[in-house]
Amino acid sequence: MNYNNNFDQDRQPESGYTYVQGLGFVPFGPAYKERTSLITCANAIGLAVLLYLFLRVAIPDYVVRVLMLFVPEIRYFNSHLMAPEWITQIIDGTCFLLSNFIAYGLYMLFIRIPVKVALPLKRPQASVTVASVLIALAVSVLGSILTSAIGRVFGFVGLIPIMPDISVSLTPTGLIAALVNICILPAFVEEFVFRGVLLQSLRRFGDGFALAISSIIFSMLHLNFIQAPVALLTGFVIGYFVIRTGSVLTGVIIHFINNFLALIQQIIMPLLSQHLADIVNLLVVLVYLILGLVAMVLLARSSDNLFELKTIPSSFSVRKRAKMFFSCPAMVIAIVLIASLSLHSIQRLPR
Fold first, then answer.
1. Please, are residues 233 and 142 in contact by the beta-carbon 8 Å criterion?
2. CB-based contacts of 136: which residues, under 8 Å, 6+ apart?
3. Closest by alpha carbon to 103, among 35, 53, 166?
4. Which GO-annotated molecular functions does the record name (predicted)?
5. Which residue range(s) make up the domain with 193?
6. Measuring CA to CA, how many Å separate 212 from each of 46, 106, 294, 321?
7. From CA 159, how far away is CA 149, in angstroms rounded?
8. Which residues contact 199 (CB under 8 A, 6 or more apart)?
9. Residue 144: which of 223, 224, 79, 231 has the closest Cα?
10. Is the dihedral of CA 243, 245, 247, 252 positive or negative?
11. How many CB atoms lie within 10 A of CB 340?
12. Which end of the chain is more exposed for a tag (fewer CB within 10 A), N or C?
């Protein structure tokens, strides 16, 4: 028995009967058990997502009130938080960490997935990890190109997609805060959640299914239409290499390096002239694409069945499983809420 894909079998009804016309009471079949398990998991994930979104709004005020007991510089003025930059960064990071820990920690408890299954932490193979980083960087560039194309399409219909404003202070405390909140925390927290808890808990329905669903949820929770393509593609690549190496640490490494290089670019680009910045950006794109292509070729030559994922016997097609997953009540509510929140990332051009 593959323990990773069957950790919740004790939750499934091993005995139980349903009435079938002409046959009387017969035991529940495998299709019923699979459907029940999938719907339960989907609703649990939907509720976890909703709880996460609620906590992101509810927790900051409590964190601020606790910090006000120790840091007298923190105060409210006309409902606006007045605090040093390093304090606001601590508040943001703390709220991000607590929201994820509470929401998805409760999900883990509900589905009873063991920590060692949800967070496989074996040491990944160095050569595969290096290749995965280069491939992920190349895919992020392709995602950025796709994002630019989507932005132009929005412009044609009179809409302006807005990227989140991430300002980085060049002071020592500002740089440390940016390193923690942009690189370190997302690398560990988001990988533990999306490529750890969510991806691993869904693998009992098939690796391909788990990879697609976890990547879609990862992209949706960016709450930004223009960021979604990059998040979807990079999430898919990171998830694949986490599965392939059997370690969520692979995802942490990829995520950290990707965000760290993006942070370096964000710091350096404003210091350059527009012409020089365009040249540097073009060179970065070319280098990422070339290194990613080389890494993929070398990895393909050294590995058998590079892009094959484990399949499992199922009573339903992947399309049917996806339809059941996203049509569950909690997931429908979560999708509607995410879509409404994401609308804030688009503005209409003035006429």
1. yes
2. 234, 237, 238, 241, 254, 258, 292
3. 53
4. endopeptidase activity
5. 3-348
6. 16, 23, 25, 11
7. 13
8. 210, 211, 214, 239, 242, 243
9. 231
10. negative
11. 10
12. C
Measure the CA–CA gap between 255 and 242, rounded to whole angstroms.
11
DSSP 123: P
Q: For residue 20, which amino acid is it? A: V
Domain count, the chain: 1
Q: Rg of the chain's alpha carbons, rounded to an integer?
A: 22
Kind and range of the H or E element at 253?
Answer: helix 248-268
Give the tokens for residue 60.
């900051």
- In this structure, are residues 131 and 299 in contact, taking their beta carbons and an 8 Å threshold? yes
